[in-house]
Amino acid sequence: MKFSLSLAAAGALVATGCASDARPNDLCEVPPPRQAGGALPIGQAWSGTIVPFGSAVNSDGRLVAAYYDAERYLTLATYDPEAERLCHKRLASRFAGWDAHNALTVAIDDAGIVHIAGNMHASPLVYARGPLDDLDAVRLQPMLGRNEASATYPQFMHDDHGNLLFLYRDGMSGNGSWLLNAWNGGKWQRIGELFADRDTKGPVNAYPTAFVKDGPERFHVAVVWRRTPDVATNFSLTYASTRDFRQWDVGGRRVNGPLSPETMEMVDAPGVQHGLVNNALLQISRSGEPVLLYTKFVDGQKSGVVAATRMNGAWREQTIVVGKTAVQVSGGGSMPGLPVFRFGETRSNGDMHVSAVIARDQTELLLDPDTLTAKPWRPDVGPNASRARAKLMPDVTLKIPKGMDKATVRKVQVRQNGLDGPIEGELRWFAQGVNQDRPHACTEQAPVACKPPASPLLWVPAPD
Q1: Are 214 and 160 within 8 A, CB to CB?
Q2: Burial letters 44-73, b for 16+ CB under 10 A, else e
Q3: What is this structure's pTM?
Q4: Helix (H/G/I), strand (E/B), else coil: 136
Q5: 344 contacts 386 by C-beta, under 8 angstroms
Q6: How far apart are CA 319 and CA 224, in angstroms?
Q7: pLDDT tens digit string along 100-120?
Q8: Is 188 left (phi over 0), alpha (psi -120 to 50) or beta?
Q9: Lowest mean pLDDT among 193-202, 303-312, 379-388, 454-463
Q10: Residues 221-241: pLDDT tens digits?
Q11: DSSP 251
């Protein structure tokens, strides 16, 4: 295995992993010089398609990143800023294809154990753990050893007591359930099934938003439901909240899991073939109500972005962006060109910044989450400007080689503990766009797309 880091620079190879029984693929060394903006090269990453990488920083500032190296192996990099030591370890898991679902995720628990999961899409669970300060002890292993043959969408999270949880789908698109495990006493235990794989009409598959926690320690979630692997069969958007992931609050009623489309609050039910995409987002407004963003066909079969919230106990929706045409919403795999949107800052008066792109047309809005009225966004300036701005990251340039196919610079936030701690910086690299999980072809316009060059993987710390 070859890294871009020179073992001759500044000295020298030191013990691995960083344990004394070093192996060829477990290397620790003095890191290379920092680049402009304080960026530190920590490895070489495969750039064939967009696949999210995992990362975390512990309370002492030590970084761990999980990524696919230039030869597609799942690789861990750790950087200790105090000792100025950069370490690497390859795990025996290799990214075989071009599937953008094979995301990597990382969490650090209170005992300093690092947990890594990923490189799976309806395939056997890939999970490893071990001490952050000893990569040589990090091992691939089963989690519970059951319901782990067809795993997708691994997610670590915390419960209301700060305990580590792990959520994933067991099954496949259109026919899969979601299971939740808890890390307790140095081992994983099953909490239960959260979202069912059937409703009264047959097999289904839930696509939940990230769980969002409010002040009273309640977790909120919205779910887009699908009937087959074809994205065109997304048919409804639902909502529920919980305190313990076993019982759910559904419109004031207590409901036991697993949840199905019939047992959750119905937000919107456009039905199949109506442009509903499984990329809904959820936030909690200043007034404590859930606010959802999602996309479907609106105004005569045009793609649109819709906002929804509860008003006087009932769900209300409002189209806030209308595209010029209908973006095709059908087929399988990671699809390019679908409408995308995000929540930005929440201002002191409660208004939410919403950014949306439909067919390359970008719209920036300020959304009043209580009335669902929207107006053009303008930068928040003056003495009453929001004080909750994120730290401005340094301007770090990554040069994308010529001949790639729709390559862009990727940025992933790095948080303390990997989940919900403060933002400590970013990982940056370049990668080609999604291609429905199929290989990119080399063409006259993109002669290296089928065998793209590796990208430098940069660790960019947040400014003090």
Answers
A1: no
A2: bbbbbbbbbbbbbbbeeebbbbbbbbbebb
A3: 0.91
A4: helix
A5: no
A6: 18
A7: 999 999 999 999 999 999 999
A8: beta
A9: 379-388
A10: 999 999 999 999 999 999 999
A11: T
**Residue 208, exposed/middle/buried by CB under 10 A (0-12, 13-18, 19+)?**
buried
> Is 246:227 a contact under the CB 8 Å cutoff?
no
Query: DSSP state, 417?
Result: T
Distance (Å, rounded) from C-alpha 139 to C-alpha 201?
42
- DSSP string for 421-448: S-EEEEEEEEEPPP-TTSPPPP-SS-TT
Q: Tell which residue, 303, 305, 302, has the closest CA to residue 294.
A: 305
With a CB cutoff of 8 Å and minimum separation 6, the contacts of 381 are: none
**421 vs 59: CA distance, rounded Å:** 9
Sequence length of the chain is: 464
CA distance 259 to 250: 10
The number of angstroms, rounded, from the C-alpha of 249 to the middle of its chain's C-alpha atoms is: 26
The encoded tokens of residue 367 equal: 């959304």
Strand partners, 176: 171, 205
Residue 222 CA to residue 209 CA, distance in Å, equals: 6
pLDDT at 391: 58
Tally of CB atoms within 10 A around 204? 25
Per-residue DSSP letters for 67-105?
A: EEBTT-EEEEEEEETTTTEEEEEEEEEE--S--TT--EE
Residue type, 430: F
Angstrom distances, CA of residue 273 to CA of 175, 198, 303, 340: 18, 20, 12, 18
| Beta partners for residue 213, in sequence order | 219
